[in-house]
Amino acid sequence: SQSDKHYAGDMKHDSVSSPGISDQEKEMAASAFEAFKAGSYDESLKHLDSLQELNKEDYKVTMNKAITEFYKSGQTTTSTLKQTLITLKNQMH
């Protein structure tokens, strides 16, 4: 249908014109995730910090940092994680 075509076109246009995610950011995000999976939480946080420098508005980075900190702490700081998630939720609205 015509409206579907228009919508898809808009989506494509947005990803081209908006700052979006650079290859560098994708690599950093991948490195952060790899480090996280390997249990290297400090290394993961370093990558996430760098990502945050590049993209201060990205709430996903903040969320990933909160989760990484949570794992790094031996999963004992649920209140901190909860607080971060509440803050993020408020920022997004």
UniProtKB/TrEMBL annotation:
Functional note: Component of the CCR4-NOT complex which is one of the major cellular mRNA deadenylases and is linked to various cellular processes including bulk mRNA degradation, miRNA-mediated repression, translational repression during translational initiation and general transcription regulation.
Per the record, the similarity remark reads: Belongs to the CNOT10 family.
Residue span of region Disordered: 1-24
Task: Indicate, by first and last residue, each region the UniProt record lists as having compositional bias (Basic and acidic residues).
Answer: 1-15
What keywords are assigned to this protein? Cytoplasm, Nucleus, RNA-mediated gene silencing, Transcription, Transcription regulation, Translation regulation
Q: Which domain of life is it from?
A: Eukaryota
Gene Ontology BP, a term = mRNA catabolic process
Q: Where does the protein end up?
A: Cytoplasm; Nucleus
Q: What is one term from the GO cellular component aspect held by the record? A: nucleus
Q: Which PANTHER family match?
A: CCR4-NOT TRANSCRIPTION COMPLEX SUBUNIT 10
- This one is known as CCR4-NOT transcription complex subunit 10
